[in-house]
Structures are given as structure tokens and as C-alpha cells.
């Protein structure tokens, strides 16, 4: 996806972006408007946890292209509605979705774990933000961007203890990046610092 030793690329609109968001219109729009912006609510975080799980072994572009269909299949990623679903077997025949039985089942399992988390006096958004580190990376190139951290490892372990699936340390690091918990925008890219969380 990204080129080794690759820094920000100045695009045709004069804005610098990482290589993965420099040319593809879908990825560019996602980078420009969503990636790295704070997601703190329960439903929003639940959707992101599920989408990051769908990405395992795939490109993020594939997930984005199927996001609307996944939202349709899973009640807009409303945790309560999804938690009440039975089998996801019927979804395996839908070519508009990512037809991986384990990943589809994980959405229902994760919804039930999300609902259960409320009994701890918190919700999924607050829970994930509880693992925000004291500092954030300042990568100059894609090679400088970590793939996991002590915090993502702890987050993964705590979510697994609570019954979540497809929440490994690398996947949870990607979640923390995409939801603004950390800022791994390349230094020099036009979105660096856009979340307002990190100065």
C-alpha cells in the first residue's frame, strides 16, 4: 500500500498526503474528511472496530468500498440492533459484503460485547479512549509509522477479555489511528494535527 521510505506526496490540489491517500479518489476523500478525526461515541466506535476487523488480510480500500453495504446489513452498526441478530449465514450470499463467515459473526459477537460493556459504567468509545497514550508519533515517512504500541496491546487484551473478536494489537493500533486516539499523519501532510487532540 505505502512505499518504503516514502514521505508526503504533494497532490494536484497542492495538498500533501501520505502515499496511500495520494491518488485513489475514495481513499483521498476518506483521508481528507474522516481518518484521524476523533470518534468518541459508542455507535461510531463500534462501527470502526468492526470495519478494522473486516480489514484483516484485506486492503482498507476494499472495506471502504463495501462500507455502505455493511451498514445496511448491520442496522447502521447500531450495537443493540446487531446484538439481537441471530445467524449471519444469510449474508454469505451477498456479493456486496465481505463474505467471510468469521468476520460477519464477529460483528454480532462484538455488538453483544459492546452492550455488555455498559455494565462496567462506560461505553465502547470511552473505553477505547482510556488507552490514549501520553505522546503521539511524529512520522516523517510511512516507514516511521508504528504498527502497534504498548497501549494497543493492552487495549487488544482488554477487549478480548470482554469477548471481542478481530481486535489484535495491530488492528487496534489502526483503530487508534483512524479514530484520533493517536495522530500518525505524516509530518508535512496537510491533515497533521487536524483532530485537535494533539498539538
From TrEMBL:
Pfam families: Adenine_glyco. One of its GO terms (molecular function) is metal ion binding. Keywords: Glycosidase, Hydrolase, Metal-binding, Zinc. Zn(2+) binds at residue 185. GO terms for biological process: base-excision repair. It comes from the Bacteria. Gene3D superfamilies: Hypothetical protein, domain 2. The keyword Zinc applies. This is DNA-3-methyladenine glycosidase. It comes from Corynebacterium liangguodongii.
Amino acid at each position: 500500500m505505502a512505499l518504503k521510505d516514502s514521505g508526503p506526496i504533494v497532490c494536484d490540489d497542492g495538498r500533501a498526503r501520505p502515499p496511500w491517500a495520494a491518488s485513489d479518489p475514495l481513499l483521498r476523500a476518506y483521508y481528507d474528511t474522516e481518518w484521524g478525526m476523533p470518534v468518541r461515541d459508542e455507535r461510531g466506535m463500534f462501527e470502526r472496530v468492526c470495519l478494522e476487523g473486516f480489514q484483516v488480510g484485506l486492503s482498507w480500500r476494499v472495506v471502504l468500498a463495501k462500507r455502505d453495504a455493511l451498514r445496511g446489513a448491520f442496522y447502521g452498526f447500531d450495537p443493540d440492533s446487531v446484538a439481537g441478530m441471530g445467524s449471519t449465514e444469510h449474508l454469505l450470499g451477498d456479493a456486496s459484503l465481505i463474505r467471510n463467515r468469521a468476520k460477519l459473526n464477529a460483528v454480532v459477537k462484538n455488538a453483544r460485547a459492546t452492550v455488555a460493556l455498559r455494565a462496567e459504567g462506560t461505553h465502547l468509545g470511552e473505553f477505547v479512549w482510556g488507552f490514549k497514550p501520553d505522546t503521539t508519533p511524529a512520522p516523517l515517512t510511512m516507514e516511521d509509522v508504528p504498527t502497534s504500541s504498548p497501549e494497543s496491546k493492552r487495549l487488544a487484551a482488554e477487549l478480548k477479555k470482554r469477548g471481542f473478536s478481530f481486535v489484535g494489537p495491530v488492528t487496534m493500533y489502526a483503530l487508534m489511528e483512524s479514530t484520533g486516539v493517536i495522530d500518525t499523519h505524516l509530518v508535512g501532510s496537510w491533515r497533521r494535527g487536524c483532530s485537535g487532540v494533539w498539538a
